[in-house]
Specification:
This protein is an alpha+beta fold and 171 residues long. It has two domains: 36 residues, no CATH class; 133 residues, Alpha-Beta Complex (Nucleoside Triphosphate Pyrophosphohydrolase). Helices cover 16% and strands 37% of the residues. The protein has two helices and ten strands, in the order βββββββαβββα. Strands 4, 5, 6, 7, 8, 9 and 10 form a seven-stranded mixed beta sheet that branches. It has a three-stranded antiparallel beta sheet with strand order 1-2-3, with no helix packed on it. The longest helix has 15 residues. The radius of gyration is 18 Å and the shape is elongated. The structure holds zinc ion (ZN).
Length: 171
């Protein structure tokens, strides 16, 4: 995890100490900040035996493959977040989601590292989406899950989720 603060956000002192896991404490004013694990939700959308992947337009992982998904908003369930991200990123509505599993991930955005726990869901759709969010997504691709290589995928959590999905299909 990268260091987030050089100065105490409360009193401005340089006495901020990081425990190298998640806790920042100020030696001067006792300000404490827990950089807790953030929750994210993503969905494997199956369409005709293949899956819908996003080619990322932004860092981190620019140009690499990802699933529709993102961080939860406050007061949101993981299912609501997964559906909202699908609606925002690939412009379709999904009714039912099946929970697959959760995987840890590290997401570095503008120099700040965030530990997340990514909850992965599965849903089947009838038609390949034709629209997408052009600020976040460079391209939508439809791939046979067996043909996706790890080094094409942006995040460790997604690599692990795709591995689980392939193993479930093989049963
Ligand atoms: Zn302080």
């Amino acid at each position: 995890m990268t260091r987030t603060f050089n100065y105490c956000p409360s009193c401005g002192s340089r006495g901020i100490v990081f425990d190298r896991i998640k806790e920042f404490t100020c030696a001067d004013c006792e300000f404490t900040y827990f950089q807790n694990v953030a929750t994210a939700a993503g969905t494997i959308l199956e369409c005709g035996g293949k899956i819908v992947l996003i080619k990322r337009k932004q860092e981190p992982g620019k140009g690499l493959l990802d699933l529709p998904g993102g961080f939860l908003d406050p007061q949101e369930t993981a299912e609501e977040a997964a559906k909202r991200e699908i609606r925002e990123e690939v412009k379709i509505d999904v009714d039912t989601l099946q929970y697959l599993g959760s995987y840890p991930n590290t997401y570095v955005f503008k120099g700040v590292g965030y530990h997340s726990c990514d909850l992965l869901f599965y849903s089947r759709i009838d038609a390949f989406p034709t629209e997408f969010d052009k600020t976040e997504v460079a391209e939508l691709v439809l791939m046979d899950p067996e043909e996706i290589q790890d080094d094409e995928v942006a995040f460790e959590s997604i690599k692990m989720g795709l591995r689980l999905f392939r193993s479930l299909r093989a049963c």
